[in-house]
Design a protein that fits this description.
alpha+beta, 3-stranded antiparallel β-sheet, Arc Repressor Mutant, subunit A, elongated, RNA_pol_Rpc34, 230 residues
């Protein structure tokens, strides 16, 4: 959905003196939060290309449009109607401040995520619980919370598993997305990563069929053996 502000009465276009200005304003408005570059406006052919620079200057002076730099290319300016806020394509989204990735904020949130999982180290934590904490306490969106969790999964600090309803998953619905640390915490308080740093049995879909003398058993389980060798 476009990030559109309440229209300003002074930005209605009523003070436009020539039809080409109104045409250009409507063209820029149609691009909404993405904006339109000078080259895109000139390629449109609705208005003579030789007039575009003068018309955009006039519309800016009348406070009807604004220029916004693209995060990916600071040299390229996008023209937006004043009632629109620049979209993620231009700003980079919520993780960016003035076009720069806010690494300290991201790392701080990752640390807090690990601390939450450490407090619940004897059971898994559902996606719903994680989102509930970050949306309420950190004022993040659900999508932002998912991005932080995905980042930690890619770092191999936490793992994403689906509940099978057994053992540590007993209090969760079967198939529900859950998270757990990949390993025990080391002396400096950081999570120890590793594909088999934690017992794989909790995430095994066949745990209910596993027994010492069964067809599936710890002695024949290749994953359990790899964990022992880790």
């Amino acid at each position: 959905m476009s990030k559109r502000k309440r229209p300003d009465p002074k930005s209605s276009g009523s003070n436009l003196n020539e039809p080409h200005e109104k045409l250009l304003l409507n063209l820029i408005r149609s691009s909404q939060e993405k904006g339109a570059t000078m080259n895109e406006l000139k390629r449109d052919k609705t208005i003579p290309a030789t007039m575009i620079t003068r018309l955009t200057t006039s519309l800016k002076k009348k406070n009807l449009i604004k220029e916004v730099a693209s995060m990916n290319n600071r040299g390229v300016k996008h023209f937006l109607a004043m009632e629109f806020e620049p979209g993620k394509e231009l700003t980079g989204g919520e993780w960016y401040i003035d076009g720069t990735l806010n690494l300290s904020k991201i790392e701080d949130l990752k640390v807090k995520c690990v601390m939450i999982l450490e407090r619940h180290r004897h059971r898994v934590v559902t996606l719903e619980v994680m989102c509930g904490y970050f949306v309420k306490e950190e004022k993040l969106s659900v999508e932002q919370t998912k991005e932080i969790l995905k980042n930690l999964v890619l770092d191999n600090v936490i793992m994403e598993v689906k509940s099978n309803g057994l053992n540590e998953f007993a209090s969760t619905r079967i198939g529900e997305v859950c998270y757990k640390l990949t390993g025990k915490k080391s002396g400096n308080g950081e999570a120890r990563a590793g594909a088999f740093a934690s017992v794989p049995c909790g995430a095994c879909p066949h745990i209910g069929l596993c027994s010492p003398d069964g067809v599936i058993s710890p002695s024949t389980c290749v994953y359990f053996q790899k964990w022992l060798d880790f």
